[in-house]
Amino acid sequence: MKKLINDPQNVVAESVEGFVAAHADLVIASDNPEELFVSRAGGAVQGKVGLVSGGGSGHEPLHAGFVGVGMLDAAVPGPVFTSPTPDPILAATKAADGGAGVLHIVKNYTGDVLNFETAAELADAEGINVRAVVTDDDVAVQDSLYTAGRRGVAGTVLVEKIAGAAAERGDDLDTVAEIATRVNAGARSMGVALTACTVPHAGKPSFDLGEDEIEIGIGIHGEPGRRRIPLAGADEITDLLLGPIVEDLAVTSGDQVLLFVNGMGGTPSSELYIVYRHARAQLEAKGVTVARSLVGNYITSLEMQGASITVLRLDDELTALYDAPVHTPALRWGV
Amino acid sequence: MKKLINDPQNVVAESVEGFVAAHADLVIASDNPEELFVSRAGGAVQGKVGLVSGGGSGHEPLHAGFVGVGMLDAAVPGPVFTSPTPDPILAATKAADGGAGVLHIVKNYTGDVLNFETAAELADAEGINVRAVVTDDDVAVQDSLYTAGRRGVAGTVLVEKIAGAAAERGDDLDTVAEIATRVNAGARSMGVALTACTVPHAGKPSFDLGEDEIEIGIGIHGEPGRRRIPLAGADEITDLLLGPIVEDLAVTSGDQVLLFVNGMGGTPSSELYIVYRHARAQLEAKGVTVARSLVGNYITSLEMQGASITVLRLDDELTALYDAPVHTPALRWGV
Description:
Chains A, B: Homodimer. The dihydroxyacetone kinase complex is composed of a homodimer of DhaM, a homodimer of DhaK and the subunit DhaL. The structure is a homodimer. By secondary structure, chain A is α/β, with parallel strands linked by helices.
C-alpha cells in the first residue's frame, strides 16, 4: 500500500485538519473529534433551511468539500468507506439548524440510511424539523453489497448543489426537499473501474481486477457492478455506461440535460474529457441538448482509476438553481 | 496499460475536443489540428498583453485549463510529455496578440525553451513584440534529464495566475514580464512520486519504482530526483520536500507565503490535505504566515501517485493579483 499518510487510523482526522486549515474562510471542524463534522465557518444561517450530508470518507471532495455558501451547511465524514454514527450526524444537524428545519441528503447505503434516520429522530426530539432525501441514481444494479435498491452515487453532488441553491434563495423545507427529490429522480449514473482501491486500515486492495480486466457498473466502494469485461476503448466503455442511463432516464430528442463525467480519484482529467467527448456526441446524436457540463473528481473512491457518467434532465428551474452562485472548497462559481 | 483512451495516438486530440466542448463558453481550439492550440473563446483582448504558455501534454489541467479571463490567452498542448513545435506556438501567439505584445511563459525544459524561442523570433518577424519568462522553481536538482538548470514545475501555475491578473488590469508587457519573473524568483517547489506513470504511446511505465520505494525530488515527467528511499510516513516525506524549499527560499519569521500542495494526478485529495497539514504546521512553527493556500491537481503527470509542495513568498501586490478574479476551466473565483 503506497499512500501519503501517517498512521492509517488517523487518515480522516489529519485530512480534515488540513482541509479546514486550508479553507478556514469557509469551513470549521467540530470541537469534539469524537463527533467529527465540518460546517460553515459562519455558523448556521438564521431562517435558512440547513442542508446536511455525510457518509464514509474516501469519496472526497464529497461531502465536506461542498460545505459553503449555496450548497451544504454541514458534512459528516465517517471512517473510510464506513457510515458515521448517529451522534456526529445529530451534532451536525444541530449546527446546521437555523430555525427553518434541516434536510438530510443521504446516499442509499444501508448504514447511512439507518444512522441518518436515528439522528433525525434524535433531532426531532430536540425540536428540529428534519426531512431526508435518499439518493439512488446508480442504474448499474438493483440491490448490492451494502444496499437495498439502487445505490446513491454521483447524482448526489447535483442534488447537493441544486437543493443548496434552493435553500440559499429562501425556499422552505418542503420545497427544498421536493427539489432535491426532483433532482434525484431526474439523474442517472453508472461507473467503471479500471483498478481497485485500498482502504488505508485494510492495507490491501478491496477487490482484484485482472491486468486487462475492468468492472462495468462498479459502486463507489468497489462493490460489484454488472460485469467484468476485457479492457476496451474509451468510446466503447462510454457506450456501455451511457446506454443504460439513457434507456432508464428515457431522454429523447428535445430534452435538455446536464452531463457530468466524474473521476474516481486516480484517473487523469484528459481521460475524463475523452469520455465526455463521446458521451456528449452520443447524446447530441439523439437530439438531446447538453446544456450544462461538469467534468472532474467530485465523488471519488480513494485512488481508484475509473470514471462515472451522470445525466440529469434539466428544466428551467433546475438550470437556474444549478447556475446560482456557489462558494465551497471544491465547487465555486459566481462569487 | 489501463487507460480510458481510444487510439493512443489520438489522446491529445480527443481530450482537447472534449475539453473545448465542455467549456465552450471559455475556450476554443484552433481550426488547424496540425497547429493545435486552445485560446479564449472571445479572441484576443485588444490593448491587453497576451499570455501564452504550453508544453507537452499529460500535465492537465496545465496549461489549457488555465485559459480564460485573468489568466492565459492561449495554451499549446504538445504530444504527451513532448514539446509542441514552433508552428502551433506561433499560431497561438498570433491568436493571443491584442496589439500590446505577448508574454511566453515557458517551463524550463530544453525542448520547450528552444521551440518557444523559435516561435518568438517568427512572431517578431511578423511584428509582434514577444517576451519570455522561463520558470525554474524546482529545487530538487540542478540539470536533469531534458533540462539545463532547474526544472519549471508547479510554480508555473502561480506565475500564470499572477501575471495573468497583471495583464488583465492593463499592465504593459515589461511590467507583466517583471511580475512573472518576480513570482518565479519567489517560488520554490519539490515533488515526490509513489508510483510511475505510463505515456499512452509508450504503453509501459516511464520508470520503475519498487513496491516500497518512493522517489524524492521527482520531475513532472518522471525524471530522476534526488534519491530513492523506502516508503515513509506523510509527515516525514513532507519534511523531505519542505526542507530544501525553505532553505533555498530562505523564508523566515514574519514572511507571508502561499502554500500550494499539488497532486500528481493519481493521489486522492485527502492525502494532499495530510501533506498540507504538516507543511503548514512546519511553516507556522518557523513564524511564517500561510496567507494563501491552494490544494489540488493543477500540474500533473498523467496518473502518477505523488505530490509536490510549492512555497511562494508573497508581498501585497502579488497577494492582490493572486486574489483577483479568474475564470478558467480549472481555476475560478471572484466571478
